[in-house]
Amino acid sequence: MMDRSYILKAQSPAALAEEYIVRSIWDNKFPAGTDLPAERELADRIGVTRTTLREVLQRLARDGWLHIQHGKPTRVNDVWETAGPNIISTIIKLDKSYLPVIIANVVSLRTRMAEFYIPEAVKLNPEECVQYFAQLDSLQDSAEAFAKFDYTLFRQFTFSANKPVYALILNSFKGMYHQVASIFFADPVCRQLTLAFYRELLKACVEKDAEKAANAMAQNRQSSSEIWGKLLQSIPENFGELK
């Protein structure tokens, strides 16, 4: 039988199996490129039925942890090559030391990607872009409200730029995006800084000026980068567990 202290916080037989396998892969007890133990052996080791184990293996294969091929042993993947952003929350639970780099990556991805498609949206559909700011004057001065507004705003711009794949990318990061934004917007100074940025961006949309939009994006990145440097040094302990 397995060491029960090895489990994260399993709440069901399926969760028990999933967390045991994921932890074993992460800690190199089941190294990438090797085969998992046979189903019967692994089910007995974990203490779950083979039916439950098969369901878990299929789910982990969809997430990129494993490769299942009929008639052959289940193979362990290198998740950095095969998995998508949906496993980020799991990685954070497995190793909190990854938090700063993951948050920095999410912020960079959101900002750099937007610096490309938002000016394009203003160029192609400026009138449509103006409508995205309809609720700006009534935006509640809270971290929660700003986080929701920010995500919605940046996602809407992807469609005006005719970049729907970028919307899918943002969808995959929605939970993480909201948590990261909530940390930033918890500071009233950051909310005021961003509010001024929103107004500059709105002005660019009204004036149909893609270059002005690009400049607003660049200035916002520069003014917030120092703040992010400080925030990454004091990340909440419960980050990744928040909903």
Strand numbers in spatial order across the main sheet: 1-2
Strand fraction: under 5%
Name the CATH class of the largest domain: Mainly Alpha
Terminal residue distance: 33 Å
Output the CATH topology of the largest domain.
Four Helix Bundle (Hemerythrin (Met), subunit A)
H and E order: HHHEEHHHHHHHHH
* Tally of separate helices: 12
CA gyration radius, whole angstroms? 22 Å
Q: Tell me the name of the CATH homologous superfamily of the largest domain.
A: GntR ligand-binding domain-like
CATH architecture of the largest domain: Up-down Bundle
Low-confidence stretches: none
- Provide the domain count: 2
Can you tell me about this structure?
- The chain has 243 residues and is an all-alpha fold.
- The protein folds into two domains: 13-83, Winged helix-like DNA-binding domain superfamily/Winged helix DNA-binding domain (Arc Repressor Mutant, subunit A), CATH 1.10.10; 89-233, Four Helix Bundle (Hemerythrin (Met), subunit A) (Up-down Bundle), CATH 1.20.120.
- Helix content is 65%, strand content 2%.
- The protein contains twelve helices and two strands.
- It has helices at 13-26, 39-46, 50-63, 79-82, 88-94, 99-124, 126-131, 143-160, 164-172, 174-185, 188-206, 210-231; strands at 66-67, 75-76.
- It has a two-stranded antiparallel ribbon with strand order 1-2.
- β1 and β2 (75-76) form a beta hairpin.
- The longest helix has 26 residues, at 99-124.
- It is elongated.
- The protein starts with 12 loop residues before the first helix and ends in a 12-residue tail after the last helix.
- The relative contact order is 0.10.
- The model has no long low-confidence stretch (mean pLDDT 89).
